[in-house]
TrEMBL record:
Keyword Membrane: yes
Top-level taxonomic group: Eukaryota
Family of this protein: Belongs to the organo anion transporter (TC 2.A.60) family.
Protein's UniProt keywords contain Disulfide bond: yes
Membrane-topology annotation of the record: Multi-pass membrane protein
Subcellular location: Cell membrane
Protein name listed in UniProt: Kazal-like domain-containing protein
TM ranges: 14-36, 88-107, 127-149, 161-180
Species of provenance: Xenotaenia resolanae
Amino acid sequence: EIELDHKDLRWVGAWWLGFLVASSLLFLTALPYLFFPREMPKENGADDVESRSVCKPQQQQDPIRELSLVQFLKSFPRIALRTLRSPIYLLVVLGQVNLAALLSGLATFMAKFIEKQFSQTISFSNMMIGGVGIPLAVLGIVLGGALMRRFNVSVSGASKLCSGVILLCMFSALPMLFMGCSTKTVAGIYPERSSSLSCSSHCPCPADAFNPICGSNGVEFRSPCHAGCLSRQTDGNNKIT
C-alpha cells in the first residue's frame, strides 16, 4: 500500500466534494424563486403604459418570428452584420471575452503560481483561490449592484463606474509584477548546463520522469532518481530502498 498525505504531490483528495457543496448551496439559493408570483407587480407608471398599449387596434407582431427557416437563413447574414455594427454590443462581447480569459487563467495557473513563486503548499495555494479570491469576486458583484441601486446609476454612469474600477484594479495589480522569489535552481534545467549529473550518472533515470523533489542544499531535482542513488534494492515487501 502507498501511504499518502495532503502534502504528497500524488495526493488528489476528494475533488468531487467541492462540486457537491456548491450544488447544494445553489439549490438552497434557488428555493426562493419557487415562491415568486406568476406576474410581478408593475412599478411607477408601468400599468398606464401597458393599458395604453392594449388599447391599440392590434399589436404588431415581430416580422422575424413570421419568417420560415429558409427565409431566416437568407436574412441571417444581414441581421448578423447589423448586430456587429453596434458599438455597445461589441464592447459587451469584448468585456465578456476578457473576463472569461481572466477567470480561465486564474483558475488554471494562479494556484501553481502561488505554490512555486512563493514556496507555498498545494493546499494553501488552492485555499487562496477558492477561499479568498472567489468570495471577494462575489462580494464585488453584490456591492456593485447595491451601489447602482442606491444611487440610481444610469447606463452612462455604470460605464464610468466600471471603467474607474478596472483602472483601479490595474494600478493595484502593478506591484505584483515586482513581487515573488527568484527562479529556483533545478538540476539539469536551470541554470542551463549538461543534462548528465554526477550525482545520478550511475542511475538509469527515465528522461520523462517528473516528480520534483528538493534537496537539502536547496537544489530541486526532477525526480528522486535524478537526485542521485548509489544502489537499487528491494526488500521482502517489494519496496525500493
